[in-house]
Amino acid sequence: MMLPPKALVYPMPVGIAAAYGSDGRADACALGFVGMCSHVPETVMIGINSTAKRKTRRSILERGCFTLGFPSRSQIAEADYLGIESGYDADKLSVIGFTAVKGEKVDAPVIEQLKVTLECMVISTSDVGSHTQIFGEILCIHASDDILDEKGRPDMSLADPLMYDDYGFRYYSLGGALEKISRPGRKYKGRRFRTTIGNNTEDYSSREVLPDCPCHHLDGSESIRIRLFAVRLMPADRLSSAVMHLRL
Ligand SMILES: Cc1cc2nc3c(=O)[nH]c(=O)nc-3n(C[C@H](O)[C@H](O)[C@H](O)COP(=O)(O)O)c2cc1C
Fold first, then answer.
1. Protein residue with least CA distance to atom 17, ligand 1
2. Per-residue pLDDT reduced to its tens digit, 45-91
3. What angle do CA 29, 77, 45 make, to 5 degrees?
4. Which CATH number fits domain 12-173: 2.30.110.10, 3.40.50.150, 2.60.40.10, 2.40.10.10?
5. pTM for the whole structure
6. Label partner for 26 (CA 20 to 30 A): which of 15, 172, 186, 208?
7. C-alpha R_g of the chain
8. d(CA 164, CA 83)
9. Is the CB of 135 within 6 Å of ligand 1?
10. Alpha-carbon distance 181 to 194, whole Å?
């Protein structure tokens, strides 16, 4: 089914952007428009609506810095509240009992109750349609001890981040860790194509086929080359059906 266009990354982590306002008060808002941008320098992007009421956007642009924290599943009510009330109308952090301290590297509040928080300095902005994309270089990361693994890295299953689906307007949690990156795909690595002869489907890698495949000189068509190679490897009892296939 074809669906109408919609800004969508599926799913999105819920981020909490925080900044000091011109009144000096720490405020924060919930964000789904959150993404990684660069390894060098380490950079994230947040998108804040420039056509709607957003105190956090104004504060970030005025101060040139912000923090981006990630709430846990257990903080769903607090995170949601930060996304439905404006800092123009309430002292949001004190309403939900969150506290903040000034960042180590930037002049922005680090919310103490969030398990992972990035301190970011604004390095550029770009208006794209309704939203201002704010690019922040990450100057340091705060992670609470209880979510670190044995190597001192944040463990996502311990942090239990809150996720959001902008299609269903619904929060989700992660389903748990799967395999390590680069392991599940290994069974396909080096394979360049699959071919079917008769009822049999086989995988062949280019390393196996290209060096001495005799049909290079017979026919330019890649599909014929693949099939001839298959004949070479085939047990005698399957050879006759393969030859018939080639004659078609
Ligand atoms: C889950 C969730 C995700 C949100 N994502 C964004 C977003 O990416 N960009 C944005 O401008 N507003 C987003 N909002 C809305 C703002 O958080 C909301 O308007 C907030 O009240 C703004 O507060 P402020 O005026 O204190 O900045 C989101 C709200 C929720 C609940």
1. 83
2. 999 999 999 999 999 999 999 999 999 999 999 999 999 999 999 99
3. 30
4. 2.30.110.10
5. 0.82
6. 172
7. 27
8. 12
9. no
10. 24
